[in-house]
Amino acid sequence: KGFSSTFTGERRPKGDRIFEALGATDELSSAIGLAGEFSSEKGHTFVDQLHKVQCMLQDVGSNLATPLSSAREAHRKRTSFSEKPILELEQWIDSYSEQLPPLRAFILPSGGRSSAALHFSRAVCRRAERCVVPLVQAGEADPNVAKYLNRLSDYLFVLARYAAMKEGKEEKIYIKPEP
Question: How far apart are CA 96 and CA 157, in angstroms?
Fold first, then answer.
């Protein structure tokens, strides 16, 4: 009938912002899964990190499915989202960034299948973040969830560049068309 339940048992329309954010997060996990498969075929060592990210996205979803306005303390405890995964992403970003050449131009999604799939995942991540921010602003989701998605998109960008470099694939850059 166009309604679904949150983890707290509250019935909301399927078009509710919470379900929009959950759907975007699920799509993000699927995109990362695809990128992980392409990356695994190329023997990239970061595939385990992508799997860990997918697991964290399940926790993101649990937090989103538990609107703080209707959550009891037991719900909040089970679905809280800490700052620890954000700090881990920042460490990963720093580690890969140190190995990359400086960025001198706008990069188009490219650089082989692994890299392009990671760029696609980054774009989906940005959309998921845009869906989550209003929930955080309304006090319905933990601010750490939005922070995690923000850092995750940066991680996916750096990882896309790293994958292209490791595979010896050229990253295409933006060239302004002549008038």
Answer: 10
pLDDT tens track for 62-98? 899 887 676 667 667 666 788 999 999 999 999 999 9
Q: Is the distance from CB of 81 to CB of 63 less than 8 angstroms?
A: yes
> Which domain CATH number covers 78?
1.20.1200.10
> Are residues 115 and 160 in contact, defined by beta-carbon separation less than 8 angstroms?
yes
Would you call 13 helix, strand, or coil by DSSP? strand
- Determine the Cα–Cα distance for residues 17 and 101; give it in Å rounded to an integer: 40
Identify whether 174 is part of a domain. Answer: no
Q: What's the predicted TM-score (pTM) here?
A: 0.92
Range of the domain at 39: 1-165
If we measure between CA atoms, which residue out of 52, 117, 39, 137 comes closest to residue 89? 52
* pLDDT at residue number 112: 97
Query: 25 pLDDT exceeds 70?
Result: yes
Domain count along the chain:
1
